[in-house]
Each structure stands twice: as structure tokens, then as C-alpha cells.
Amino acid sequence: MSELFVPVLLTIITASTPLVFAAAGEVVVEKSGVLNLGVEGMMIVGAVIAFAVGVKTESAALAIISGAAGGMLTAFIFGFLTLRLLANQVATGLALTIFGLGLSALIGHGFVGKTFSGLPKIGVPFLEQIPVLGPLLFVHDILVYLSVIAVFLITYVFNKTRLGLIIRAVGENHHAAHSIGYSIVWVRMGCILFGGSMAGLGGAYLSLAYTPLWVEGMTAGRGWIALALVVFASWRAWRAFFGAYLFGGITIIQLHAQGFGVDIASQFLSMLPYLATIVVLVLISNNSSRMMLNAPADLGKSFHASD
Amino acid sequence: MADKKPILELLEICKGYPGVIANNRVNLEIKPGQIHALLGENGAGKSTLVKIIYGVQRCDTGKIKWKGSEISQITPQIARKLGIGMVFQHFSLFDAMTVEENIALGIPATLANENLKQNIIDISEKYGLPLDPYRYVHTLSVGERQRIEVVRCLIQNPKLLIMDEPTSVLTPQEVDKLFKTLRRLSAQGVAILYISHKLQEIIDLCHVATIMRAGEVVDTCIPSEESPRSMAEMMMGTNLIVTKKNERLVSEKPYFSVINLNHQATMEHGTDLKNITIKAHKGEILGIAGIAGNGQIELMEVLSGEITASDDSLVSIDQVSVGNLGPRKRREKGLGFVPEERLGHGAVPEMLLWENAFLSGYQSMKLMLNGFMNVTKSREYAEKIISRFNVKTPNVNVTANSLSGGNLQKFIFGREILQDPKVLIVFQPTWGVDAGSAAYIRQSLMDIADRGAVVVVISQDLEELFEISDKISVICEGELTKPEIVENITVENVGLLMSGIKPSGNDILGTQL
């Protein structure tokens, strides 16, 4: 049995990890009151830069770091436009996605057809020897571990630390946060950059581990799924984590189901994440006070100190 | 007290915004233990000045001295470190967070430790300001929310407490409580800078008053030696109009009536309306008194038509049933209304003044031309409102949210009154409006009643209701008492009814209650 299921479950983890990075990062961004619709763009820039550096230097560590930096730089453009020049967040986010797709195609032009050796697997000593569970949970590449740690850290910061409280306050009521003395621009910029580096890591995982090669447009809408996941998770990182695995699971099972000849249209299965998001949105907006407690009240609003 | 050195000195403070000078060479000094009132009309620059002291805004030129030494740069964090606390007019609270989290955000990190909960409880008990640190802010009343802000300041042992219109949203009982706390703080040597439009409160509470007009300090006085009227005149620089009640012809049959209307609140923490009956006659001002949160919001919604009645016949204007009609259709029948919330309900914040005038007046003022907006006529209408109601604005092409609260209220009132409604329903007409404008608004309400309109005023300001109403009803927990002629009742009795104490005898509200 386990010979059959362990590989399937392992591919689910691989398919879900990019979503975990992107969605958890966007949770932080949106909690600070910023709606960055450019996740797809930041991911793909992260993917191409990580791959390019990986191919040139043969170093996994450098590839990962440059992927995160690529996402962060793309996010910085967004932050500068929306926080400093007060551009509309929705329009800027959409533009960022289009920009990212174009830029990545340009950078990646010379790397089509090249290959990268992939990320080395790191086993956790002793735990990896547990039958079935060992290979499933404790033999992965560094980014899978990092995604779990990131989700854990974000949850901890939001629930237990003053920093988390300040980020939530800025997203909840920026005028109040400003008048008690917090810098809205710096808090939001920090969150945007963090979200960008997380999206970049998600992209890097795609081009370094999931399918270690570069294909134009290889994020294939995962950035949008990550955005949907944030709402699905009602702005909680750990729920976004499970959401990501749910959707990653659906994607993989759908592939295997087709292999076994299960007769469900693949288009229907790929619709599922979005359908689930709509259902969840209907359910949470049904209870207005719960919605209010979860959704950052000033999400998507520009802030200028003079009002 | 006179020989004490000032704790805070402001020297020649100037602050300008595009198109306005908010503060022009303002000088002010506050001594320890002093309760210092800052008075002025809406837009006189009081709020800007206190924001400069607390470091939320930066002044263009001028000096701030704290305990005799100059402070070069001030931010809210620095202000708190020095010992300045501030309670904001529009609370600086976060609805989706608990009381404890809200307080933690407004104090230095070193104080926000695991003892904070106990600290909150201790402080709130010491000053008689009960607070539960675990409650979420959005479940609290306005009075309780203000307590959070006060406790947040007190926890840091302030030397100077700034309060920007703290009582405009409080019930009389809550005001009493707050004053006790403030007097106690003053006795401990805490200086208090107090902004309010309620002049009687200033006389009761404050030791000195500084009066501002158009961004400048124009006068100072000892409030206990003044009358509300004399202080209002200092603020305006002109004489205050005295509202005058005329004898009016009252129609025999009620013109606007609501019969046995029930409504279940849709909002969480809302109040259900039970058997509401209103019979209002032409030429009559009916006051509805009540403590906020007793069903006034719901009442306003069913009267204006934002919520339609279960049966068409439950609400009628001039014997015509309008219960099933929405606000626009009710406006066609001659109903006008001024809701409590000015921005977002009474006016669209991001739209220009003339556009806002068009939105409510396009039917009765005939501002449409062959299905299009008649821009020229709409502008003229808005300009007329501005000149008749003395709205302070550069022109009609500014957005509604650029006006100060009192000015916008005057604009909204003018907009409704110029449409000459047959029935006018107003909710908290002079909330946060300065004395001069308030008197003007009250007078215009009486004027349209003189012209034969029905006026219904929902308010918790008893002084105001007694000044203008012919009859007063009290709303408590969604029930409305039978209206009584104003000459037959006293403020105390109405106050008791408002707090839900039903008379044991039958003589509290007249005889046939």
C-alpha cells in the first residue's frame, strides 16, 4: 500500500509548497491593509531569477536567496507606487502581474531548455527512519521545511507579539494607528517586502524543485489561487497552509484520478479551488461580525497623513 | 496655583493647509493641575492645535516648551514619554481588537507586558471606569470606548491630558462620571486641556479658557465668571441669535402619523422597536428624547423609509399611506430627513458639495433637465445653501469630507430646509456643532414649523429639546412614551424616563401616562 501512496502524497507536498509560500506572504500583506494583486507577477519573477542564478552558479542556496530577492524587488515597485505615490492598489497589483510575466519571459529567454539539478533532500536524523511517516514527512528539501517554519512564525507573530499587533492595527484602522504614532508607510512597506520575498520563494520552488526547468508563464495562475486562499483562510496563515494543501491535493489527485480512468472533466477539478473560495466567502460574509473580526477593515485603502 | 510654572508653553505656533491657515501665531500656556478649556467655533483650529501638541501633525513655525525647555521634534511616542496623553474626538481605537490589545498599542512596549491586564483592572477600579480587558471594542458602547482611551492615558501617569470633545457622545450620567475623574486628576496635579462645545460644562469644570477664532487666539477668560452666552459671543465675535418660539397654528388632524409599528433590529446589538405610535401635527415640533442605543437608529430608519414598514398603512403623511415606500418616494410626498451620521449617510464624502445637494434635492428642486443633470441649477442651489446657512467653504466644488463636522451639518440642514419639506425628521441636529451654528439650526427648525411643517427631532440633548419642542416623547428600549406638552414636564423627569425608571405613581410625565 505505502509504495503506492507515499509517492502520491510526496507530490502533493511538492505541489502545495509554492502555494503555502505565496498565500502566507499575502496574508501578512493583507493584514497590514494592503491588497497586492501582483502575487502572480512576483512569483514568476522569483521563479526566473532563481532558475537563472541556479543554472549560472550551480548553487541551490544562492538560487533560493536570489529568488526571494527577486520577489522582494518586484514588491518594492508595488510598495513605492501605492504607499509613496498613492496609486490605486488594485490597478497597480494587476499591472505588476502583467509586468512580472513580461519581464520574466525576457530574462528567461536564454534559459529555455536548460536544466537544473534540483534541490537536495535533507533528512531529519532518526525521524527519517520511521517507516512510512519518515520518508513522507522528514525527507524534504530545505524550502518545504522553510514553508512550514514560515507559517508557524507568522502565526506566532500575529498572535503573540507586539509587532503582530501593530501590523493588525495598521490594517484595521490606519487613521487611528497614525494618530497614536505608528508609521503606516513603514509598517506596510515592511509587510509588502516580506510578502514579495515569500512569493519569490514560492516561484523559486516551482523552477528549482517542482519542475526544475524554466518555461514561460510557468506559475500558471498559482498566484491567483494564493490570493483566493487568503480569503478562503479568512486571513490566517495556518488556515492558508491547510488550504494550500487542500488545493495542492486536489490538483494531484485529479491527475492520478485521470490516470485511473475516473471520469470527471479535468476542467471541473481545476475549478474546485475557486468554487471552494466562493462558498467560503458566502459562508463567512453571512456572519457580518465574524467577517469584521477577520478581514482587515482598511484593506485596499490608500493612506495619506493629512486626512 | 497662579505661582506655579507652566508645564506646557506654546509660542507663536503657525500651521497652514492648502488654502487655509489653521493656526496663526498661537500662544498658550498650561499649568499643572489646571483644567484649561480651548474654545472656538467649528474650524477655528482647536483640533489642529492639539494634534500639534501630541505630535500627530507638525507645526510650520513656532516653539513648544515642556517644563520650560524647548522640544525640537515631537511625535506621539515622544509626547507619551514626556507625559502627554490624548483622548481623540474620533476615537483612535481598533474595533476588531480587544480592550487589552487596544491599550497595549497606545503605550510604550515596556508597559505592555503580562501585568497589563491587571494594570487595566487596577486603574479602571481606582478611577471608577469599569473595563473588561477581554471584551472586543465593537461590542462596547461609545461611553465604554471612551473609557478605553482614558485608561490608556492614565496607565502612563500623564502630566498633561488632552481631551478633544470628550462629551459630545456621552450620556449625562457618563459625563458626570468623567468629570469626577477629571477633577480627581486635577487635584493630583495633572493638567488637562479640554475642548468642548458644551459651554455649561466648561463653566462647571474648567479653571481657565482660551478662545480661538479663525486660527488665532482672540481672548481668555475665567469660565466661572462668564455665562454660556457671553462665551459663545466671544467665540463668534458677534452677538448670538436668541431663538424665539412663536405661537403657531397647529393642524387639527395629525399630518404625519405612525401607528403601532413594530420592527425587529437587523443589526447586532440593535434595539427592537415596539408599538411605536407617533401623531404629529402641522406646525408642531415633536422632540424624542432618549439615551443613545435605545432604538433611535432604528426609529430613524423606519421613519425615513430606509426600512419599510410591514404594512403600508402603518406610516402616513397627510392621510396617504407611505409605509411601503422607500426614502426617495417618501421625499416625493414631502418628507425630509437629516440622519445622525453626516459623512456616509447624510452626504457622500468623496462627492462635491453641489453633487451632494443634487442627490437629495433633484426631485423637489427640479434639478433634472430632460433626464440629465442640470449642473448650473444644481450649483446655484448649493451656493444658495452656502450663503443662507453661512457654510464656511471656498466654493461648492469641494468634496463633502473636506468640510469640518459643524459646517457639513449646516450644509445638510440647509439642503433639506431649502426644499421646504412638509415633514422634517432630524437626528441629533446639533451634535458637535458650535454654539452659533447650533442656535441658527434650531431657529431654522422653528421657522419651518412656523410655516406649517411637521418637525420631529430625535436627540439626547435635553436642553435643546426643551428649548425648541412643543411636545416631548421619550424612547427607552425601543418603546416610545406618550408625548407631553413641554410646559407640563421637567428635565429631571424626562431624564429619569430616559434611563428606564418608570414612575411608580402616575405623575412623572404629566398625569395620563
* Biggest sheet architecture of chain B: 7 strands, mixed
Radius of gyration of chain A: 19 Å
Largest sheet of chain A: 2 strands, antiparallel
Beta strand % of chain A = under 5%
Number of domains of chain B: 3
CATH architecture of chain A: Orthogonal Bundle
Q: Please tell me what the overall shape of chain A is.
A: globular
The low-confidence runs of chain A, each spanning 5 or more residues with pLDDT under 50, are none
Named at the architecture level, the CATH assignment of the largest domain in chain B is 3-Layer(aba) Sandwich
Helix content of chain A: over 70%
- What number is the mean pLDDT of chain B? 86
- What overall form of chain B do the CA principal axes indicate? globular
The proportion of residues in beta strands of chain B is 15-25%
CATH secondary-structure class of the largest domain in chain B:
Alpha Beta
N-to-C CA distance of chain A: 64 Å
CATH class of chain A: Mainly Alpha
| Overall pLDDT metric of chain A | 89
Strand order of the largest sheet of chain A: 1-2
Q: Any idea of the CATH topology of chain A?
A: ABC transporter involved in vitamin B12 uptake, BtuC
Description:
The complex is a heterodimer of chains A (307) and B (513). With 307 residues, chain A is an all-alpha fold. Helices cover 73% and strands 2% of the residues of chain A. Chain A has a single domain, classed as Orthogonal Bundle (ABC transporter involved in vitamin B12 uptake, BtuC), CATH 1.10.3470. Chain A has a two-stranded antiparallel ribbon. Chain A is globular, with a radius of gyration of 19 Å. Chain B has 513 residues and is of the alpha/beta class. Helix content of chain B is 31%, strand content 23%. In chain B, strands 13, 16, 19, 20, 21, 22 and 23 form a 7-stranded mixed sheet that branches. In chain B, strands 6-7-8-3-9-10 form a 6-stranded mixed sheet, with helices on both faces. In chain B, strands 2-1-4-5 form a 4-stranded antiparallel sheet, covered by helices on one side. In chain B, helix 3 crosses helix 5, helix 11 packs across helix 12 and helix 12 crosses helix 13. Chain B starts with 7 loop residues before the first strand and ends in a 15-residue tail after the last helix. Classes of the chains: A mainly alpha (307), B alpha/beta (513).
